[in-house]
Design a protein that fits this description.
The chain is mainly α. A two-stranded antiparallel ribbon has the order 1-2. It is built from 12 helices and 2 strands; from the N terminus they run αααααααααββααα.
């Protein structure tokens, strides 16, 4: 990610952003409007037009990345420019306004811009770090392969439980049916395991929380300790080993979903904030031309 985005093309868009910013700052310093610098001067209107065009172009990245057959540059190049020119935008806007800020809709648009840029920085950090963490967490496998391994363990657990009797068969079937992989958005984000299991208890049954397959493993350990049959004890030990492998896989899959959720969640801030910025920008422009 760092090589393909931030260092794309020898960091050409970093140098472009620095050049544009330095040029605009230089013009601002030598400009003499015969009044305090503000958005209503010739330079102010010019920089306002530049900033508006830049906002619209940056927003267009969301369209470009979905046009897979577009010949208008690579997605990596667009994203690199999106990052560096987006970082330059707040200074351009400040120069447009002559650093004059107040409690009004114009400042609201600027605050929204800062929030969009901040959320973008968070997104860049996520994408620069999380894919490698996800790959390390999976141990080189992909999610489909991990799910196939989980299905295989469940099938082997069913076969092992069938040889041990009805209590074991029902407990294992319940543990499989009530295993929660992913669950709610909050569960995916926090990595919380909300699995349950129905276990035999005092001639009846009880529902127990089974995070990490712990309740089922504890029940198996108790049954193994009370078993006087060496063959049964060995079969229960094999079943427990399968469940420990299942626990490891579930932990890996939960970690993968958690990282994926964190990778995506910044969009739930970045996209709505961008929409709010565009709305505030329209109000800002209309207000300026109607009342200034």
């Amino acid at each position: 990610m760092k090589a393909s985005i931030l260092a794309y093309g020898g960091r050409r868009y970093l140098w472009l952003a620095l050049l544009v910013t330095a040029g605009i700052a230089g013009i601002y310093l030598v400009h003499d409007p015969q009044e305090p610098p503000n958005g209503g001067t010739v330079l102010g209107y010019t920089l306002g037009a530049v900033a508006t065009a830049l906002v619209l172009w940056l927003t267009a990245f969301g369209i470009r990345k979905r046009r897979y057959h577009s010949t208008q540059g690579t997605v990596q190049g667009w994203l690199s420019a999106h990052v560096y020119l987006g970082l330059a935008l707040p200074l351009i806007v400040l120069l447009h306004a002559g650093f004059q800020l107040g409690p009004n809709v114009h400042t609201l648009a600027f605050v929204l811009l800062l929030l969009v840029v901040a959320s973008g920085i968070v997104g860049v950090w996520f994408y620069a770090n999380y894919p490698a963490r996800m790959s390390h967490n999976r141990g080189g496998a992909n999610r489909t392969e991990l799910l196939d391994q989980l299905d295989d363990i469940d099938e082997r657990s069913r076969r092992a439980a069938n040889s041990l009797g009805e209590d074991f068969r029902d407990a294992i079937a319940s543990g499989i049916a009530r295993t929660q992989l992913g669950g709610t958005a909050w569960s995916r984000l926090t990595g919380r395991d909300e699995s349950q299991v129905v276990l035999p208890a005092n001639g009846g049954s009880r529902v127990a929380a089974n995070a990490g397959q712990e309740a089922l493993l504890d029940w198996l350990a108790d049954r193994q300790a009370r078993s006087a049959d060496a063959h049964e004890g060995a079969a229960i030990g094999e079943l427990s080993a399968l469940l420990r492998n299942k626990r490891r896989l579930l932990k890996t899959l939960a970690g993968d979903m958690q990282l994926e959720a964190r990778l995506a969640i910044w969009l739930f801030a970045h996209v709505p904030l961008t929409a709010a910025l565009l709305a505030a920008l329209v109000v800002h422009i209309v207000t300026v031309f109607l009342y200034w």
